[in-house]
């Protein structure tokens, strides 16, 4: 019997701006990654998101990103490893304050957007992020792209890692995600996305845009909560996994 975690990015509203279907999507996922105020989110949204997730008994992780609200943290920034360390520690601490005040605890840390993708290929950056997580709490799980430098850095420093795959993204021959700047970065057909997910979990493979199979490990599946059909897609993924005899459960 295959087992996999199903995670989603939440808490990405801020100020007067509303994004996602946070409350509804919690019925279908087992872990959430809460924005910590740099790429999205604000203190009020963080508190409310923590309360919602705890109420649904969904595991909570920090989702630290680059300090880029306008670009939603998806634009590369030339930060140093020390800066990466500092912003990750800072954002974990911010979310942890809300978790402690609400009687909850943090399960994991998953970098966001450009920070995530930069760390997937940059060894020094990934080591700085892994060190930040480890020094805050060595019991935290580090989520990273399957087969990436971030996963290797987490393992090297002694963290439990969660190798992540994506339901609605296409892959390159080296195992990286297709850039969002490319027209074929997202999988628009739900059935195609679900078929990709099931194959990644059961076979440990994904078909790249170049036509070759890429080996990967699927500990946790990311679904995005900010799309036009995010809620129905989350439901479809969850139901399809169960019909394929794949158990959906959190790491804990």
Give an overview in words.
By secondary structure, the protein is α/β, with parallel strands linked by helices. The chain has helices spanning 22-25, 43-55, 81-101, 113-121, 123-136, 149-157, 190-203, 230-243; strands at 2-10, 31-35, 59-63, 108-109, 141-145, 160-166, 205-207, 213-215, 220-223, 246-248. The strands form 2 sheets. A 7-stranded parallel barrel has the order 1-2-3-4-5-6-9, surrounded by 6 helices. Strands 7-8 form a two-stranded antiparallel ribbon. It starts with a strand and ends with a strand.
List keywords for this structure.
8 helices, two-stranded antiparallel ribbon, alpha/beta, 252 residues, 39% helix, seven-stranded parallel beta barrel
């Amino acid at each position: 019997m295959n087992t996999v975690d199903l995670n989603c990015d939440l808490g990405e509203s801020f100020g007067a701006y509303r994004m996602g279907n946070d409350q509804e999507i919690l019925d279908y996922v087992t872990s959430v990654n809460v924005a910590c105020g740099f790429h999205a989110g604000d203190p009020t949204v963080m508190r409310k998101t923590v309360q919602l997730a705890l109420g649904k008994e969904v595991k909570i992780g920090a989702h630290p990103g680059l300090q880029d609200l306008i670009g939603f943290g998806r634009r590369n920034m030339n930060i140093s490893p020390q800066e990466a360390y500092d912003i990750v520690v800072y954002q974990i601490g911010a979310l942890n304050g809300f978790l402690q005040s609400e009687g909850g605890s943090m399960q994991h840390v998953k970098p966001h957007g450009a920070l995530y993708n930069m760390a997937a290929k940059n060894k020094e950056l990934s080591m700085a992020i892994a060190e930040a997580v480890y020094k805050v709490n060595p019991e935290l799980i580090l989520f990273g792209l399957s087969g990436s430098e971030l996963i290797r850095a987490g393992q090297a420093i002694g963290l439990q890692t969660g190798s992540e795959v994506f339901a609605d993204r296409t892959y390159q021959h080296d195992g990286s995600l297709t850039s969002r700047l490319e027209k074929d970065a997202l999988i628009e057909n739900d059935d195609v996305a679900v078929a990709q997910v099931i194959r990644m979990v059961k076979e440990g493979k994904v078909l790249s845009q170049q036509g070759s199979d890429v080996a990967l490990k699927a500990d946790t599946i990311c679904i995005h909560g900010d799309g036009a059909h995010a809620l129905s897609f989350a439901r479809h993924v969850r139901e399809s996994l169960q019909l394929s005899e794949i158990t959906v459960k959190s790491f804990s």
